[in-house]
Each structure stands twice: as structure tokens, then as C-alpha cells.
Design brief:
heterotrimer, A alpha/beta (about 180), B alpha/beta (about 280), C mainly alpha (about 250), B: Rossmann fold, C: mainly alpha
């Protein structure tokens, strides 16, 4: 009969090591860190003409600091805009209500994220608030189209005849829009 | 509570018109026999006649193709799994090589049935185990591991384990195989003494004619799936039947042929010469 | 010959069915077997603690190779800093569960199969039946439980040591920045990935343990029979593991 004392000790150590490894994998390799359960948060909505390939879970940051995540992306069939719900950390609850939200790209070819730039208002964003000022995602095809359109204009020379504009009609250029 | 009333008071095992076939090979065709209570009954026969199969049929490990096997008056076919398990607790079986559990020591092996089926206090278990080991003469080996025992000792420990629950029937499957004469004598003595002292029925399957005839009360000789001879050892020794004479006398040829069935010898030899 | 192929297929189908039925028989005996917890603990020790050395060594070497190969590959794109996330994803999602399962089948699986096969060959299982003890409950179920408890833990240990092995090569030997190594990993690995790895190792654990105890319990009671049972354990476990790997990966790739 194998010594049951060593048996129990060996098994206990093994199981302990195994759970330590599981703990390591779930906390040290993921961005969850040591957080258990969801942190206090509040949700803010914003509408965009084009979200590009922004994904649920993409970060929301301000001044380069991550303050939350995109929790939902849907489509409003009434005004044909994308509705993005952002879940912000409750620690950051002093964001002015007139801040604007823009969709940026990480690095040169990375994923999309939402960047907030502070406005000057006195009131702060609360749960279920709406951000009115948005800027849509940068779409490469639009930029090329616009570039070609401008190129065509200058190529036509000093002539007032603008009929020489090439066929590539530029899509809506990124501009600040007041959306509701 | 089940009642184990027997129809025939002196018969503890009855086999009636038993047929058993495996893969279309008929092992038993119409076997009839009765094993008397309280006696040592031996089954002998040439290799391959199904002696071990008969044991498996008696213990319910195998079911017959047709026919009845009654143990203590109950038809085994009518019993559920639990019923068979309950019946087996009243039987003890000694396997050919002991079949001790290799990861337990001698004490734990003998105590195994008690630990699995009863909730006896540790002190009582200890007393019972030591008593049974004393009966087989191995009380001093109580802490050894099965790997440290000789063949004969392992078999005696297995015997102690088989009697720990005070069974009514003790079954021995080829208990003398591979034993030296001394160990054989020990086992023989134990078979007889345990049978008489505990008032149980012993069933022994063996082909060691001289040995088993010295302790058996009744002998059945099986061949070709049937009982070809039965009686007391003395009756068998003086029998005139050919098959009995061949078996008892250890003759090489007779009703059980020497040659395995084959074609004509000369034809086969010549055929090979022609092929060259 | 289509005839022989068909026979093979039929045999495989029949065996799979028999194995599933055996699984149900085992599962039915789990509650009672848990009452004899000491038996289960002994089997967790046999399957898990005794496999620790080979798992940890293999994890270390696999991680180190990952570090080397990953570094070489990423260097071509100037993205050496992504070594952390490459190693972590590779180990946690694939190499950890799969390699652990294959090693488990080789070490613990063969031990289980040969142990049970030997018990079958020496009549120990028949003896238990004769003593009115259900051998499946007493002997098979604890071994099965031991295997399925040990496997996910072993896979996690493999992945953890592998990540450190990759880090050893990448950061200490190759000069990848330690901070980038870990921060990129943290932002790239999600809980879903770790879950996928755990689900895989759990499934592999069930499959490999079942195959091992089935082959051992139903081995032919001869020396060759036991040998055949151990060989079949390894082969069947390997193929089943890789097949399940594909299934689960596809499942998670919604």
C-alpha cells in the first residue's frame, strides 16, 4: 500500500500547481488583469456615418488613455447611421457633454478605436447620455477618390471649365457634422 | 428478505438439460448433474471440455444458451444483477492463480470483501482477517505484498479471502496447477478441513486425478460436453469405461485421440514431394 | 478494396458505440465512486502528479522553440515585440491542450490501459465480480475521474511554462523588450482564448481517459492482448484528440 501521506501530499501539490497555472493564464496573459467581475461603468451613445471596421470590444480612449470599451454597434434604419454604445469606466465621470467622438486607427494598419476630445461645456456625461459631435472612420477608398478628384481639378489648369473633373465622384468627405 | 428454500434438500446446485454454445461451437449439449450439499464434489476432464465454463455458469458470470442452472433452489436466469451479486456473497471462489489485488497487501486483500460489503468496526475486521489467515497458515504473512508471495502462498491468501464472508459454497478453479508437492498437500488438506469444519459445499475443478480423488466425495468426469462418468473416487478407479480408464490411467491414446484431426498422412507427405 | 474499407468503417462504428455505452456505464458509477474519494485522489496522483516532469520539460522546450521560431519569423516584419502574443496564443489555444493530450496518452494513457489489461489477464476483475464488487465502479471510474481532472491542469501548466520558455528565449536571449512582450500579450490575448484552451483540454481529457480505460478493461487476457490494448490506446487517443481539436477550434471561430 503506497504511503497515503505522500500520495495526498503529491496530489495536493499537483492540483495546487495546476490551479496556479490556470490563474496565471487567465490573469497574467489577458487584459483582464486581476479584476473579477465588471467594474462600475456607465454607457454613452454616439452616431456615426461610417464606423469602418470598429469592433465590439474596441477601446475608447481620451488623451491616449483607455477609459472604456465599445459594448455595442448597431444600425439605425431611420437616419441610416451607425449607433455605437460605449461603456466608460465610472472613474472617468467628468467628461464634458459637448465632447466629440472620432474613430481613429491604431498605428498605420491597426484596428479602429474611438477617441474622445474634451469640449468646453460645464455639464458632464452621465449614463445613457448621447455624444452629439462625431467624426466617422477614415476610409481609404474615400481618400483616394478625393485625391484623384483634386488631382483632376488641378490638371484641368486655370480653366474655369470644371467639366474635366474625372468620373470618380468623391464620397462624403470627412467633415464635422452636427448629428442628432 | 429472500427465502432460499431448496426443492431437493440435499442438492445445492442443480443443472438441468444445459446447452451452451460459443461462436457456434457447442460446449455443453444437454448436461444434467446435481451437486450435493455439504460434500466435496470434483469435476475432472480433458483440457478444453469447459470445466471453467461450467463454473462461470454456476456463478452466473455466463448465461446458458438454454437449460436451467439452479443454485440453492433459485434459477439463476430469474435473478437481476443485484440478485446475482447477493447470491455471490454467499459463494467464495478461488481462482487459478489466486487473483489477489496487486496494489493491496495481504491484510487488505483478505479484508476486501468485508470493507466493500459490511460496515464492521476496524477491530472486528482485524480479528476476522487474522482468524482466516490462521486457518490457512499464513497469519505471519499479513503485511506482505502479493508480489512477494510464492504461488502456493498467494493461493492460500486467496483462499482466506474466499472464506472471509463465511460462504455456503466454495469453488476451486484448478487449485493445484503449478504447485510443488508440499503446497499441493497443504491445499488438499485445507479443502477437506474447511469443508468439514465450516459445513460448506466445495466444488473443485481439476485434472490432478490422484490428488483430487484423495479428498473428493463425488467425482464427475466431463468429456465432449457431457458427463461420461460419475460416482465416488473408488467407483471411478474401478470403472471399466474406456474414457475413465484413459483419463485415470493417463493413457496417451484412447477415446480422447492422440492425433488432432488431419488428412491422410501418406497422401500429405507424397503431395509435398510432388510439389518439389 | 471497398469491401475491406467498409469492414473497417463498420468496426470503427461498432467500437465507438461500445465506447460510448461504456462511458454511460462509467458516468452512472461516478456518484458512488466519489464516496471513495481516496481512490480518486490516488488516481489523480497517478495520472497527474506522475506526469508533471514530462509535461513541464516538454512545455519548457516547446515554449523555447516557439520563442526561437517566432522571433525569427517576426523579425522579418520588424514586429519582434509581438513575440509575447504569438507565443501565448499558440500555446494557450493549440499547443498546450494538444501536446499535453498526446503526452498524456503516451504516459498516463498507456499506464491506465496496461494496468487494467493486466488486472483483466490475472483474473483480478473476475475475482472482484465474484466477490460481488462491480469492477467498473471500484477500478475504472476512479481512473477515469483521475484522468479528466488531471488533463486540464496539466495543459495549463504546460502553457504557463511554455510562455516562460518563450520569454526566456525572446527576452533574455534575443533581446526583445520585456515590457512589450507582456503588454502586447495582455492586449492581444482574451479570456475567450483561455476558455477555448480549457474547453479543449477538458474534451481531450474525457476522450483520452475513456479510450485508455476502455481498451484496458476490454483487453484480451493475454500478454499480446495487453500490448495491443496499450498500442491502440495511444493511436486512438492521438487521432481523436486531433479530430476534436479541429471541431472545437471551428466551434470557437464564430
Amino acid at each position: 500500500m503506497r504511503n497515503s501521506h505522500t500520495l495526498n501530499l503529491g496530489t495536493g501539490l499537483f492540483v495546487l500547481l495546476g490551479f496556479a497555472a490556470l490563474f496565471f493564464l487567465t490573469t497574467q496573459t489577458t487584459s483582464r488583469g486581476l479584476s473579477f467581475g465588471s467594474k462600475p461603468h456607465y454607457d454613452v451613445t454616439a452616431k456615426f456615418d461610417n464606423v469602418g471596421d470598429l469592433k465590439v470590444g474596441s477601446p475608447v480612449s481620451m488623451a491616449g488613455v483607455e477609459i472604456g470599451r465599445v459594448s455595442d454597434i448597431s444600425f439605425d434604419s431611420k437616419d441610416y447611421k451607425a449607433v455605437v454604445v460605449m461603456r466608460l469606466d465610472s472613474r472617468y465621470n467628468q467628461i464634458p457633454s459637448d465632447s466629440d467622438a472620432s474613430i481613429y486607427t491604431q498605428g498605420l494598419l491597426g484596428g479602429k478605436f474611438v477617441g474622445l476630445t474634451a469640449g468646453g461645456g460645464e455639464t458632464y456625461l452621465k449614463d445613457k447620455d448621447h455624444i452629439d459631435f462625431t467624426q466617422s472612420a477614415f476610409v481609404l477608398e474615400n481618400l483616394i477618390g478625393q485625391f484623384l478628384a483634386n488631382f483632376g481639378k488641378t490638371a484641368a489648369g486655370a480653366g474655369t471649365d470644371t467639366a474635366a473633373t474625372p468620373a470618380a465622384a468623391p464620397a462624403a468627405t470627412p467633415a464635422k457634422e452636427k448629428t442628432k | 428478505m429472500l427465502c432460499w428454500e431448496t426443492v431437493n434438500e440435499s442438492a445445492i446446485v442443480e443443472i438441468r438439460d444445459l446447452h451452451y454454445a460459443v461462436n457456434s461451437r457447442l460446449i455443453f449439449a444437454g448436461l444434467d448433474l446435481t451437486i450435493a450439499r455439504g460434500r466435496v464434489t470434483a469435476f475432472m476432464g480433458p483440457s478444453g471440455t469447459g470445466k471453467t465454463t461450467l463454473l462461470r455458469l454456476i456463478t452466473g458470470q455466463t448465461a446458458p444458451t438454454s437449460g436451467k442452472v439452479l443454485v440453492a433452489g433459485t434459477d439463476l436466469a430469474t435473478l437481476s444483477r443485484d440478485g446475482i451479486y447477493a447470491l455471490r456473497q454467499r459463494m467464495g471462489m478461488l481462482f487459478q492463480n489466486g487473483a489477489l489485488l496487486t496494489d493491496l497487501d495481504v491484510f487488505e486483500n483478505v479484508a476486501f470483501p468485508l470493507r466493500e460489503h459490511t460496515r464492521l468496526p476496524e477491530r472486528l475486521i482485524r480479528d476476522l482477517v487474522l482468524t482466516k489467515l490462521q486457518a490457512v497458515g499464513l497469519r505471519g504473512a499479513v503485511l506482505l505484498m502479493p508480489g512477494e508471495l510464492s504461488g502456493g502462498m498467494a493461493r492460500r491468501v486467496a483462499l482466506a479471502r474466499a472464506i472471509i464472508m463465511d460462504p455456503e459454497i466454495l469453488i476451486y478453479d484448478e487449485p493445484f496447477v503449478g504447485l510443488d508437492p508440499i503446497s499441493m498437500g497443504v491445499i488438499l488438506r485445507l479443502i477437506r478441513r474447511l469443508n468439514d469444519a465450516l459445513g460448506i459445499t466445495s466444488i473443485v475443478v481439476s485434472h490432478d486425478v490422484q490428488e483430487i480423488c484423495s479428498v473428493a466425495d463425488a467425482v464427475f468426469l466431463l468429456s465432449g460436453g457431457k458427463v461420461v462418468a460419475q460416482g465416488t473416487p473408488q467407483q471411478l478407479q474401478s470403472s471399466q469405461s474406456e474414457i475413465v480408464r484413459q483419463f485415470v490411467g493417463g493413457l496417451a491414446d484412447g477415446p480422447v485421440p492422440f492425433h488432432y484431426p488431419a488428412g491422410d498422412y501418406y497422401t500429405e507427405l507424397l503431395a509435398r514431394d510432388e510439389a518439389c | 478494396m471497398p469491401g475491406e474499407l467498409r469492414n473497417r468503417l463498420v468496426t470503427t462504428l461498432v467500437e465507438t458505440g461500445a465506447m460510448v455505452r461504456f462511458l454511460f456505464r462509467i458516468l452512472a458509477g461516478v456518484p458512488r465512486a466519489l464516496l471513495r474519494f481516496d481512490l480518486v485522489v490516488a488516481q489523480v496522483y497517478n495520472a497527474g502528479a506522475l506526469s508533471l516532469v514530462i509535461i513541464m520539460l516538454s512545455g519548457l522546450f516547446v515554449g523555447m522553440v516557439l520563442g526561437l521560431q517566432g522571433f525569427q519569423l517576426l523579425q522579418r516584419f520588424g514586429s519582434e515585440e509581438a513575440l509575447g502574443i504569438a507565443a501565448a496564443i499558440g500555446l494557450v489555444k493549440e499547443l498546450g491542450p494538444v501536446v499535453t493530450a498526446l503526452l498524456f496518452a503516451g504516459r498516463a494513457g498507456t499506464a491506465l490501459a496496461s494496468e487494467l489489461g493486466l488486472m483483466r489477464a490475472t483474473d483480478q476483475l473476475s475475482a472482484m465480480e465474484m466477490m460481488a464488487v462491480d469492477p467498473v465502479q471500484r477500478v475504472v471510474v476512479p481512473r477515469f475521474l483521475g484522468g479528466i481532472i488531471a488533463m486540464p491542469l496539466l495543459a495549463a501548466i504546460f502553457s504557463m511554462i511554455g510562455i516562460y520558455g518563450a520569454q526566456l528565449v525572446g527576452v533574455q536571449f534575443m533581446g526583445v523588450d520585456s515590457g512589450s512582450f507582456w503588454s502586447q500579450m495582455r492586449s492581444g490575448v482574451d479570456l475567450v482564448d483561455v476558455t477555448e484552451g480549457i474547453v479543449k483540454s477538458g474534451a481531450f481529457g474525457i476522450a483520452c481517459s475513456l479510450i485508455a480505460v476502455y481498451e484496458g478493461y476490454h483487453a484480451e487476457p493475454t500478454a499480446e492482448g495487453v500490448g495491443r490494448a496499450t498500442t491502440r490506446t495511444v493511436v486512438t487517443s492521438a487521432v481523436t484528440t486531433l479530430f476534436l481539436d479541429y471541431l472545437i477550434t471551428a466551434m470557437f471561430l464564430k
